[in-house]
Write a structure and sequence with these properties.
It contains 10 helices and 4 strands, in the order H-H-E-E-H-H-H-H-H-E-H-H-E-H. The protein has 293 residues and is mainly α. Bound molecules: zinc ion.
Length: 293
């Protein structure tokens, strides 16, 4: 942080202000929680500050590793008391654990991408097969098209992809009159592939507009009408939780449209968030049990 040795010497024992960006990074790393007592800004009257682990008067600097989130109360009451080694070690352990978790998530993500690359093969085989039985000619989807399909498939699951293939009509090319049987087959195959591509895009669009946008709408209603929720992101997580017992996407859309959103709209202003959450959760549970979908 210091440009030369001279300025570093001057800084010892002096307090240099911490930039807002560093402050924010420290808060973020510490999950916006006082690392001494666990208070968060959600608790009444809590103000978070950035504190030095090794105090400035002992030569502690403003490096990221020497800064820690503390509430104002702890920061004042603490005086010259240093953070206990135990606290500091558990914080470092937590950081390492988070790094491990992030790495695992990334690996799982990469694996799922590889799986999609593998899974596309039987799907392409299926398309080739459909063309063959409809035209009588052996057909192979060209590589650039396979890549296009793969990119679309990343946004869908296998069942959805199969449904699109099966729902796509295979048109006849009788109007091609003088064309040879081979040429007609080629024309039909190309048309079939283009139609599958368009239907996949439609399917992805519907999927996006479905659960995600309806959940967003529900979140907005809850956010505006209730009090006592943590942050908007938490409401999103809760909605996902509520919907978890409903497995099929269509059923999720249906229950959002017909039950959850209408109920949320009836919530009187300033209702308790938790109470509403429990009510919405109950609806999904009973719907699942009664197997009405
Ligand atoms: Zn505290």
């Amino acid at each position: 942080m210091c440009k030369n040795k001279e300025s570093k010497l001057k800084l010892v024992g002096k307090r240099k202000s911490i930039s807002p960006k560093i402050r924010f990074e420290v808060f973020k790393r510490d999950n916006h929680k006082c690392q001494y007592c666990g208070a968060t800004p959600r608790d009444e009257g809590v103000v978070l500050e950035v504190d030095h682990i090794v105090p400035v008067y002992e030569g502690g600097d403003n490096s990221f590793e020497n800064l820690i989130t503390s509430c104002k109360q702890c920061n004042i009451g603490k005086g010259k008391r240093k953070i206990t080694d135990k606290n500091y070690i558990s914080l470092k352990e937590k950081e390492l654990k988070e790094t491990d978790e992030k790495r695992e998530q990334l690996q799982a993500y990469l694996k799922s991408r590889l799986d999609k690359t593998e899974e596309i093969k039987p799907l392409i085989d299926y398309i080739n097969h459909m063309i063959e039985i409809n035209t009588g000619f052996k057909f192979t989807v060209a590589d650039p098209m396979v890549n296009k399909f793969l990119n679309l498939y990343k946004k869908l699951d296998m069942q959805e992809f199969v449904e699109v293939i099966e729902d796509t009509d295979f048109s006849s090319a009788e109007f091609l009159g003088n064309f040879t049987k081979n040429e007609k087959a080629k024309y039909n195959a190309d048309l079939f592939i283009t139609n599958i591509e368009n239907n996949l895009k439609k399917s992805i669009k519907n999927k996006k507009q479905g659960v995600v946008s309806l959940s967003g709408y529900l979140r907005g209603i809850l956010k505006n009408r209730t009090t006592g929720w943590g942050d908007v992101w938490e409401i999103s997580k809760d909605i996902n939780n509520i919907l978890r017992p409903i497995s099929a996407r269509e059923d999720k859309i249906k229950i959002l449209q017909e039950k959850l959103i209408p109920l949320a709209k009836e919530i009187p202003q300033n209702n308790q968030y938790l109470q509403c959450y429990l009510q919405l959760e109950q609806i999904c549970k009973t719907t699942k049990e009664s197997k009405r979908f």
